[in-house]
Amino acid sequence: MARASKMALGFVVYGFTSLVILCALTGFWLLSTYKSPGPLSEPLLFDVADGASSGAIAHNLLGQGAFAHEYDIFVFKLAVRAKNVGGQLKAGEYELPARASIADILNMMADGKTFGRRVTVREGLTSFEIVRELKAIQELSGEVASIPPEGSLLPNTYEYRLNEERAAVLTRMEEDMHNAIVTLCGIEADISDFNMLMKEECGEAPLKTVRDVLTLASIVEKETGVAQERKRVAGVFINRLKQGIALQTDPTVIYAITKGKHKNDGKGPLGRRLLSKDLQIESPYNTYKYAGLPPGPIANPGRASIEAVLNPEVHEFLYFVADGTGGHVFSKTLSEHNENVTKWRKIRREQK
What we know:
Elements lengths: L1 H34 L8 E5 L5 H10 L7 H13 L8 E5 L5 H10 L6 E3 L6 H9 L21 E3 L6 H20 L8 H4 L12 H14 L6 H14 L6 H9 L44 H8 L8 E4 L5 E4 L2 H18 L1
Helix pairs in contact: 2-3, 6-11, 8-9, 8-11, 9-11
C-alpha cells in the first residue's frame, strides 16, 4: 500500500515537473519566436487597412513574406492579447525593416509609426492650387470631382497612404479647418455644412461672421509672409473697415482676375506684374473700387492668420507698404504712406 502511494506520488511529481518543463519550453519558444529576426531580406511597405483585425493583419504579413511560418500568426495574435493592444493597432502604411521580428512589427503598429508619406500645404494657396498639388502626387489616386470652396481647407502637413484617394486627403483638410473654426470662434452648434458654418457669428465688429473672419484672414495671409506682422497687418485692415476706407489690397484684385486659378510659372500668380488698369476691373473682389470685405476668402488661410484677425494688434496705422526686406513699413497718414511708397519704388528700381 505504501509502495503504491509512493508510486502515485512519483507519477504526480513527474507529471507536474514535466508540465512545468513543457510550459517553460513553450514559453521560451514563444518568446524566442516573438523576438527572433524575421525572414524579410529587405524593407517591406505593408498596409494596415482601417478596422483590420489582428488575425487579418497576421495573415497578410505571412502572405507578404514578413512571417516565415503559419505558427507566427498564432504568436502575433497571442502577443496582441498579452499586450492588450488589439484596439490600438493603427491603420496606415508601415515600412517594415529587413529582418523585422514579430515584436518589432507589433510595436510599430501599436505606436502608429507609419511610413512618412506627407504633403505640406502652404498657407495662402487657393483651393485650385491645393487640388493641383494633390493631382501632381502620383502616389495618390482618384479624381477630384469639384474644387472645394475657398477658405474651407486648412493648410498644414498631412500624411497619406499609397493609392489613397485625393478626395480623402481633401476631406481631412476640410475637417481640420472646420475644427479650427469651431474652436477659435467658440461655436457650439453642430454644423457640418461649410456654407452654413460661414454664416455663424464669430469675432467682433466690424467682423461678424465666420465668412468675414476667413475672408480677412485670407487677405492677411496673402499680404505678408512675416509671422510677426500678421496681427499688425490685421489691425490695419480692421482700422480701415471701421472707418469705411477701401481696403485697396492687390491680392483681391488678382483673385478677381484669376478666380484663384493662378499660374505657376515662377512669375507670380498672374504671370506678370499687376497693372494700374487692373485696379479698374469690375468685380466685387476689387477692393480698390468697393469698400468693405470682398464676398468671400481669396485663399486658404492658416490658423495663425485666423488667430491674428480674431486678436489684431491695436494701433492707429492705416497704411503699409513693402520695405524691401520681405516685411513692411507702416504709417498712420496718407502723406507718410506716400513717402514710404516713394522709398519702396526706389528700392525696387535698384533691385532690378
